[in-house]
Amino acid sequence: MGFSLQHPWAFAFGLLGNVISFMTFLAPIPTFYRIYKSKSTEGFQSVPYVVALFSAMLWIFYALIKSNEILLITINVAGCVIETVYVVMYFVYADKKAKWFTAKIFLGLNVGFFGAIMLFTLLLFKGDKRIVTLGWICVGFSVSVFVAPLSIIKRVIQTRSVEYMPFNLSLSLTLSAVVWFLYGLLIKDKYVALPNVLGFTFGVVQMVLYVFYMNKTPVITDGKDAGKMATATADDHVLVNIAKLSPALPERSSEVHPVMREMGLPARSCAAEVARAAAANRDAVDVLVSRHSPAVGVA
């Protein structure tokens, strides 16, 4: 039905869905180019890519079982190839702990669990019952793909930084959800339509958060850095240098350093010396912190 010209609108939305979804799959390329250049996965996580690969594999299986769903097969085959490249790159540049975590998820989900689903549906169900069972399984794990970025949303709220949540990716996810929802309605396939309601919701939430936090100054949430801020106090006041966060650097580049210590100045320097130290750091934001002030928050 998805490829039949007797349903031109369904074919049109399916084709548009292929284009938008393909662009969505390519959206993380800047992230992985950054990983390649830095030879480190930095603060990025592998979970969304492993889950997305599993979802694409599952939809291919569903489309093959249902038959005549060429448009679902084409985009998910492309998704499998692209997500596999992402997972391999992540595994190459991740540290030992992250590699082990990624390997466990991949083997457990994409190999073990996918194999179990195939055996379960092929051996225990036939005909329409097999399609219905597999359809609801696809719905469940399509939802998990949209829920996976919740960890990124949490990080954005905690750090007040949108560095790990590109706007173009959120926009692509939202548009893709709308198009595939309409495609599912037109071919009367609720298993395709239903998950994209949640996909649209999460996409809108991510875009709203991006707009809200895009001009905010990131805060430091790492415990060690927070400890440095608490202990780097003088008898009365401490001048704290908060380095500007470069968009090309990870969030840990926003470290806190006492300016007077870096400049080799005594703890009790006069106002003129402090002024000269501030002028020498043109790319710094100097904040006067009282000894009895609460922990520094960057607005």
Q: Could you explain how this protein is built, in words?
A:
The chain is mainly alpha-helical and 299 residues long. It is built from 13 helices and 3 strands, in the order αααααααααααββααβ. The protein has helices at residues 8-26, 29-38, 47-66, 70-93, 96-124, 127-147, 150-159, 167-186, 190-193, 195-213, 223-231, 259-262, 271-280, and strands spanning 237-243, 256-258, 284-290. The chain has a 3-stranded antiparallel β-sheet. The radius of gyration is 25 Å and the shape is globular.
Structural class assignment: mainly alpha
Principal-axis shape equals: globular
Major sheet summary line: 3 strands, antiparallel
Return the average pLDDT rounded to an integer.
Answer: 73
- Number of DSSP strands? 3
The residue ranges in which pLDDT falls below 50 over 5 or more consecutive positions are 1-5, 223-299
**Strand order, largest beta sheet:** 2-1-3
Question: How big a fraction of the residues is strand?
Answer: 5-15%
Backbone CA Rg: 25 Å
Helix content: 55-70%
Termini gap: 53 Å
Helix count equals 13
N to C succession of SSEs: HHHHHHHHHHHEEHHE
Function: Mediates both low-affinity uptake and efflux of sugar across the membrane. Mediates both low-affinity uptake and efflux of sugar across the plasma membrane.
Subcellular location: Cell membrane
Subunit structure: Forms homooligomers and/or heterooligomers.
Family: Belongs to the SWEET sugar transporter family.
